[in-house]
Every structure is written in structure tokens, then in C-alpha cells.
Automatic annotation (TrEMBL):
It comes from the Eukaryota. The lineage of its organism: Eukaryota, Metazoa, Chordata, Craniata, Vertebrata. It is found in: Endoplasmic reticulum membrane; Microsome membrane. Pfam families: p450 (PF00067). This is Cytochrome P450 2G1-like isoform X1. InterPro entries: Cyt_P450, Cyt_P450_CS, Cyt_P450_E_grp-I, Cyt_P450_E_grp-I_CYP2A-like, Cyt_P450_sf, Cytochrome_P450_fam2. PANTHER family: CYTOCHROME P450, CYTOCHROME P450 508A4-RELATED. Its cofactor is heme.
């Protein structure tokens, strides 16, 4: 009996000691990390982070703990970078160390690190090098990417013209046109605007951006380990991803069956050829899984981000008709009424360029950025950040940094104009992120925004059915993305 009691006492002491050591170890690790609110077991900082407005929660924590702080999304530990100086120091000055891709729970289980946007290490380096090179060289000797955008802008103008000045919701007008640009590059074809399957896919992409940004999506980021097994609206995100992925996989099969090695038609053909070239290379990352996921990344990102920015842009231009009028005047002076807008015109149109930059800054379409991760343990601002630490470099905190923009909460093209009306760059303009993980499609997106916007304003005045003063520029959903409000516009021919 005494022996049993002694063994029980010894066991209790051992368990207590291990618990104390574990608690001390966690506390010691936290001391080396940036400051932040103490987490609750399992729940993390749920009490400090409001899922319906996570960005506002981060701003409050910045006010309390400074521009670099630690939060716990449930049991998951994340270091948040807030403001231009902190983000620039990390992503530019320490670009290599911060070049890893962190966890995004709403897509991680599905993509499994295979697409260009979510890959790491050598896989990411191979895919990025190939993707950038293919996008840069695509269309040489055939139609350039610029010509593809101009063609699609023409179709969009004609769709607007068919409305005969009546009010309509531009959401899917814009997403069809923007998506067709990336479709022509990756699939080698555009889709008819009335194609029901195409429209269904666009609706699923839009639904996922909304769902990832809603409270349920933010809660999933904190508690994916349990929510993935529970019913709810978040499960639709994964069904949508599967449907979009199935569409991509089917297009790959079509290409593979009709591949001409001497005449690649699109990105998929180029990838298939590269797969064959490296079929004997054991360290090659060019295989079916990485191709499907990379095309999926390009298709989704190339559809929703630019179309959302244009939706924001048209709403803003209706809110501020005097800005729209000045852009039209510059288009009329430089391009005229009959010439097709071209990228080369941008250099002669400083006001239009400033307006497009300000639309991107103000709309702040991807405020959270995609999460980064440390590729090695390092010292950063006096703190020890272990290898693999997830990093949130908040783009919204850069695009609305009061030290970089004079009146960041207001729409003002003057943020990108000097006193003589010339366009001026601003290092805090990072809508595509910055550093080694800057968006691979940034150049394509810039061309699209310029050509689509100038083509439409060359032909129409955009007017709201309601008084411009009553137009609300507050996003109805704000989280992973800033979702534009739903609105109606009237396209009145000049």
C-alpha cells in the first residue's frame, strides 16, 4: 500500500514537473517572439480577434503592441507586420528569409503546396521561374498578350453598349472579360459570354473570395483542425475548389490529346512540353499535380483580383464624376475617339495613371496579403523568429500608411501626382505585395487595368442611378479580400 502511494506521489511530481517545464518553455519562446496578447489554451486570441472584422482587430493590437506583434489564431502562432516600414524591412531588406509561403487553411488541404502561389522551396523556385518566363515570352511571333486584352476590351465595350444606357450590375460583365484574358493564355481560348458552364465557374470563384473573407472563413483559419469535420458554409468553399479544379484538369486532358510540340498554343502546352523534357530528371517539379494547381492558381487569381479592382474603380468614378471627367479628357487628348488604347499611351497619361494607382491603393483588394513563412531562423527587430514562423505582412497597413500617404482614408489621385501634375511613384504602393513573392501576374494585371478602364471611358460616361453622394464605398465583407459593394451603373455613350 505504501509502495503504491509512493509511486502515485512520484508520478504526480513527474507530471507536474513536465507541465511546469512545458509551460516555462512556451513562455520562454514567447519572450523571444514579438509581444502580443496572452493566448488562451486552444482558443488562442479569439477574444481579441473579431472574426467579422479581423483587420480592425489587428489595427487595435498594433496600437497596443507596435508594428510587429504576435497573435494566436486558435493554437496557430502568427507574427503580424503592420505598416510600410515593417513590411518593407521584412519583404525587401530580408527578402530571402521571408520568402516562404505560410499556411492559408481555406486552401491548404486542397492545393497541398503544389501550385505556384502555395509552393515552397525548390518546387516554388522552379515553378516561378517557368511561369514568369512563359508569361513574358508568350505570344512572341503570334498575338501578344496586349492584343488579347485589347480584343477582350472590345467585346466588353460591345456588351456595355447593348445595355442602351439602362442600369445594370457590372459584376459578371467584368469577371467574364478579365477571366477570358487569362483563359486565352492558359487554355488557349476565350469563352462566350453566355456560356453557362463558364458563368457557373465565375460565380464559384466569386463565392469563394466572399466566403474566405466572411466571419466563417476567418474562423476556419483559426480552427480548421476541427471545422473541417463540421458542416457549414465553409464546406462549400472546398466543393467550389473541386469543381474549378475538375474544369482545369479536363482542359489539360484536351490539350494533351492534341499537343503539337512545335506549336504550343498556351501555358498548358508549354507546361506539358516542359514535363516531357524533364521526365528523366528525378528532382523535377514538372508533373501533372503541379501543373493543374499552378493553372488553378493563375485562373482564380487572374479572374477575381483584377475584376474586383475594376468594380471598385467604376464605383469610385461614379462617386467622383469630376475625376472621371478628367480621365476622359486625357483619353480624348492622347488617344482620341477612334484609336485602340495601348500600353504605350500610359507614359503620356499621368492623371489616368495616378487614378488607376489610387483605385488600387484605395480598394485594397487583398488587404491581408497571402501569408509568408520564415525560411530560416533569424533576428528581426531584436526578436528571434524561428524557421517556419508564419508571417502576416498586412498590405492594407502599407497602402493606408499615414506616413506614406497624406490622407490615406480618402480617395485622392494626388497621392501619385507631383505639384506639376506629373506622375510620381510611391514605394508604399504594394497592391501586388513585394519582394520575392510579388504577384507573378502583376505586369499582366497592370496592362488589363489600363486597357479595360480607358477603353470603357473612351466610349461611355459611367453614371449611377442614385445620387453620387449616396454611393457607399464601405466594403460589405472585409477579411482575406475587400469585397466591392453590389451596385448598378448606367453606361451612357459619349
Amino acid at each position: 500500500m505504501e509502495l503504491c502511494e509512493s509511486l502515485l506521489l512520484l508520478l504526480t511530481v513527474c507530471i507536474s514537473t513536465l507541465a511546469l517545464i512545458s509551460a516555462w518553455s512556451r513562455t520562454a519562446r514567447r519572450r523571444q517572439l514579438p509581444p502580443g496578447p496572452a493566448p488562451l489554451p486552444v482558443l488562442g486570441n479569439l477574444l481579441e480577434l473579431k472574426a467579422h472584422d479581423i483587420l480592425k482587430s489587428f489595427k487595435k493590437l498594433r496600437d497596443q503592441y507596435g508594428p510587429v506583434f504576435t497573435v494566436h489564431l486558435g493554437p496557430r502562432q502568427v507574427v503580424v507586420l503592420y505598416g510600410y516600414e515593417a513590411v518593407k524591412e521584412a519583404l525587401v531588406d530580408h527578402a530571402e528569409e521571408f520568402s516562404g509561403r505560410g499556411h492559408l487553411a481555406t486552401v491548404d488541404d486542397f492545393v497541398q503546396g503544389f501550385g505556384i502561389a502555395f509552393a515552397n522551396g525548390e518546387r516554388w523556385r522552379q515553378l516561378r521561374r517557368f511561369t514568369l518566363g512563359t508569361l513574358r515570352n508568350f505570344g512572341m511571333g503570334k498575338r501578344s498578350i496586349e492584343e488579347r486584352i485589347q480584343e477582350e476590351a472590345h467585346f466588353l465595350v460591345e456588351e456595355f453598349r447593348k445595355t442602351n444606357g439602362s442600369a445594370f450590375d457590372p459584376t459578371f460583365f467584368l469577371s467574364r472579360s478579365v477571366s477570358n484574358v487569362i483563359c486565352s493564355i492558359v487554355f488557349g481560348r476565350r469563352f462566350d459570354y453566355q456560356d453557362k458552364d463558364f458563368l457557373t465557374l465565375l460565380a464559384k470563384i466569386n463565392e469563394n473570395f466572399v466566403g474566405m473573407s466572411a466571419a466563417s472563413g476567418q474562423l476556419y483559419e483559426m480552427f480548421s483542425w476541427i471545422m473541417k469535420f463540421l458542416p457549414g458554409s465553409h464546406q462549400q468553399l472546398f466543393r467550389n475548389l473541386k469543381d474549378i479544379c475538375d474544369f482545369v484538369a479536363e482542359r489539360v486532358k484536351v490539350n494533351a490529346a492534341s499537343l503539337d510540340h512545335n506549336d504550343p498554343r498556351d501555358f498548358i502546352d508549354c507546361f506539358l512540353i516542359q514535363m516531357e523534357k524533364e521526365s528523366q530528371n528525378p528532382s523535377s517539379e514538372f508533373h501533372l499535380k503541379t501543373m493543374v494547381m499552378t493553372v488553378l492558381n493563375l485562373f482564380i487569381a487572374g479572374t477575381e483580383t483584377v475584376s474586383s479592382t475594376l468594380r471598385w474603380g467604376f464605383l469610385i468614378l461614379m462617386k467622383y464624376p469630376e475625376v472621371q471627367a478628367k480621365v476622359f479628357q486625357e483619353i480624348d487628348d492622347v488617344i482620341g475617339k477612334n484609336r485602340v488604347p495601348a500600353v504605350e499611351n500610359r507614359a503620356l497619361m499621368p492623371y489616368t495613371e495616378a487614378v488607376i494607382h489610387e483605385i488600387q491603393r484605395f480598394s485594397d483588394v487583398i488587404p491581408m496579403n497571402l501569408p509568408h513563412a520564415l525560411t530560416k531562423t533569424m533576428q528581426f527587430r531584436g526578436y528571434t523568429l524561428p524557421k517556419g514562423t508564419n508571417i502576416f505582412p498586412l498590405l492594407t497597413s502599407v497602402l493606408r500608411d499615414p506616413g506614406s500617404f497624406s490622407d490615406p482614408e480618402k480617395f485622392n489621385p494626388g497621392h501619385f501626382l507631383d505639384k506639376d501634375g506629373h506622375f510620381k511613384k510611391n514605394e508604399a504602393f504594394m497592391p501586388f505585395s513585394t519582394g520575392k513573392r510579388i504577384c507573378a501576374g502583376a505586369g499582366l494585371a497592370r496592362m488589363e487595368l489600363f486597357i479595360f478602364l480607358t477603353s470603357l471611358l473612351q466610349n461611355f460616361t459611367l453614371r449611377s442611378p442614385v445620387d453620387p453622394k449616396d454611393l457607399d464605398l464601405t466594403p460589405p465583407v472585409r477579411g482575406f479580400a475587400n469585397i466591392p459593394p453590389t451596385y448598378q451603373l448606367c453606361a451612357l455613350p459619349h
